[in-house]
Specification:
Keywords: Carbohydrate metabolism, Cellulose degradation, Glycosidase, Hydrolase, Polysaccharide degradation, Signal
Structural class: alpha/beta
CATH topology of the largest domain: TIM Barrel
Family: Belongs to the glycosyl hydrolase 5 (cellulase A) family.
Number of strands: 26
Protein name: Cellulase
GO molecular function: beta-glucosidase activity
GO biological process, one term: cellulose catabolic process
Length: about 575
């Protein structure tokens, strides 16, 4: 974690390991209405349809939809909120994100480096005042606000099995101070006991007992602290914020034992792990990836929502974004976000999108990827049509043939194909048969132009509602690679991408067994074992790849491109010396 770039989530290795095994859950659609249109819902401050003082926990959690995380800021583990690369929080930032339609904001806070020694564990007054300032700004903007104990979970709370009394004393002291500080805050402020709880070197059964102790102690401290804390909504997490049934059931037991109507549960979801990080050949949003969402939300809904306990998806996204947002191909990524937003809505689960600074630019107040945000935001109220692909590849130097894309209307009606503002002619430029959209050879030939490599046009399949589905028309030729030499610290393979894009890479020894990290699959993890760099014209194999390649071995690589092309390459390792040859 310490060596990672400032804009990464800083997810502990233990949690990542757990999420590999996590299979999704909760929420089959029951006979309850989906969340209201955000514009039709109150802001909880008496300025809209809602007033938190008069709402139940279920209503408050519903009012919090949709939510956003102010990630990698007050939760950073450095000297101040800028230590992980984000700017200081300003009123203008919060106003800007509120204007994008978000109704709640999760403000993760790490307290470790701002606390004194025991037995008082006094929080630095200036830091506490800064947190309070940001919370006040958010409340004034009409947000529901969630604060918590964040990365402390893996900094010191995780040692509770061996330092039980010390950890419990510090945890209690922290929440005692926070409860006192925010006792008179309006009910639009909610507390989350701890982020992603985890405990070192113990089995789940003991971990569940320790988490139960923390959650119930948190509940007791807050409820006894006076002011609005006697009825404030409190958010309790599962172990690892996982929605595996083995972790859901103990939290249900805890909540039911507290017999408090103002409690909600929280879990996190970062997708089906192989797809989420692009490993094992899971490059597309296929049925298995979609089913993981369904199972995850269905389990969560059945455990909590159907028992009258509201649920907040406190963080969600894709784990590959920890490295860069290009880990998953754009169209496949959009299908994931569209479907998750829809199914969370169906499941009556409030979502709070994790943003560590890579989505909403906190200086320009613009979205880094407007198409991604459009799919996220549209899913709050309706579905968007998608397609089997968002890429149409045309081999340069050849006359294009007609190509067919299968549309997924998702309840919308197809209304036409456009090139910019120009409506293309059905029957001439394209045909539609059921959900099969066929682009004519004549249309594609006109779009191919002079055959120059790269993107030539962006078509839009427009539907009766939702976001149009973009089709990127790309001229390409077979990519080529060249011989290279390097060391086990890094090998940069010269690559002519020729308009194509690398989807994944296989690595195998001469006997066919997997080479490199994660040797249970020949398909390696994107930006762990390999990273394409189109601008530099190379594919980089880093030290992490060679660290798990046998010495004095030959490794056969296969590069898989989105056009369907494959390119072979051979590596030879001898000590720290690596040579690569094409063909």
């Amino acid at each position: 974690m310490k060596g990672r770039s400032p804009l990464r989530r800083r997810k502990p290795k233990l949690l990542i390991t757990i999420m590999v095994a996590v299979t999704a859950l909760v929420a089959a659609f029951a006979a309850q209405t989906a969340f209201a249109d955000p514009e039709d819902r109150g802001n909880g401050n008496g300025n809209g349809n809602g007033n938190a003082e008069q709402l139940t926990a279920e209503e408050i959690v519903a009012e919090m939809q949709p939510g956003w995380n102010l990630g990698n800021t007050l939760d950073s583990t450095g000297d101040d909120e800028t230590s992980w690369g984000n700017p200081m929080v300003t009123e203008e930032q919060l106003e800007a994100i509120r204007a994008e339609g978000f109704k709640s904001i999760r403000i993760p806070v790490t307290w470790s480096q701002h606390q004194g020694e025991g037995p008082d564990y006094t929080i630095d007054a200036d830091y506490l005042a800064r947190v309070q300032e940001v919370v006040d700004w958010a409340l004034e903007d009409g947000f529901y606000v969630m604060i918590n104990i964040h990365h402390d979970s893996w900094q010191w709370i995780n040692t509770m099995p061996t330092q039980h009394d010390e950890v419990l004393a510090r945890y209690n002291a922290t929440w005692t101070q926070l409860a006192e500080t925010f006792a008179d805050a309006p009910p639009e402020l909610v507390f989350e006991s701890v982020n992603e709880p985890q405990f070192d070197d113990v089995e789940d059964a003991e971990s569940h007992e320790l988490l139960h102790e923390l959650n119930t102690s948190f509940h007791e401290i807050v409820r006894a602290s006076g002011g609005n804390n006697d009825s404030r909504v409190l958010i309790l997490p599962t172990l690892h914020t996982s929605a595996e049934q083995v972790h859901l059931d103990p939290l249900l037991e805890t909540i039911q034992g507290l017999d408090d109507p103002n409690i909600a549960a929280t879990v996190h979801y970062y997708g089906y792990w192989p797809f989420s990080v692009n490993i094992a050949g899971y490059t597309t949003f296929n049925e298995e990836v979609q089913q993981d969402i369904i199972d995850y939300f269905d389990r969560t809904r059945a455990t909590f929502v159907d028992n009258g306990i509201p649920v907040i998806l406190g963080e969600w996204g894709l784990l590959g974004f920890d490295k860069n947002t290009g880990t998953i191909e754009q169209g496949e990524k959009l299908k994931f976000f569209e479907y998750l937003g829809y199914y969370a809505n169906e499941s009556q689960i409030t979502t709070m999108w994790w943003d560590n600074g890579q989505h909403f630019d906190r200086e320009t107040f613009e979205w880094q990827d407007p198409d991604l945000f459009a799919h996220v935001a549209t899913a709050w109220t309706e579905r968007s049509g998608t397609g089997s692909t968002d890429q149409v590849f045309l081999r340069t130097g050849e006359t294009p043939a007609a190509q067919t894309v299968t549309l997924n209307p998702n309840g919308q009606a197809f209304e036409g194909l456009y090139n910019g503002d120009t409506a293309l002619a059905e029957g001439t430029d394209y045909t539609i048969s059921g959900d099969e959209l066929t682009l004519s050879a004549e249309l594609l030939a006109s779009l191919a132009g002079d055959g120059s490599l790269g993107e030539q046009a962006v078509l839009e399949a427009r539907f009766s509602g939702g976001v149009p589905w973009k089709l990127h028309v790309i001229n390409f030729d077979t990519p080529t690679v060249a011989d290279a030499s390097g060391t086990t610290a890094e090998l940069a393979i010269p690559t002519e991408f020729n308009g194509d894009q690398l989807a994944t890479m296989e690595a195998a020894y001469e006997d066919g067994t997997a080479a490199g990290p994660q040797n249970w699959t020949t398909y390696k993890e994107y930006d762990v074992a390999f990273l394409p760099d189109e601008e530099a014209g190379q594919v980089v194999l880093p030290e992490a790849f060679f660290a798990e390649v046998n010495d004095n071995s030959t490794v056969n690589l296969t590069f898989h491109f989105w056009s369907g092309e494959t390119v072979s390459y051979t590596l030879t390792r001898s000590g720290s010396t690596v040579t690569g040859s094409a063909g």
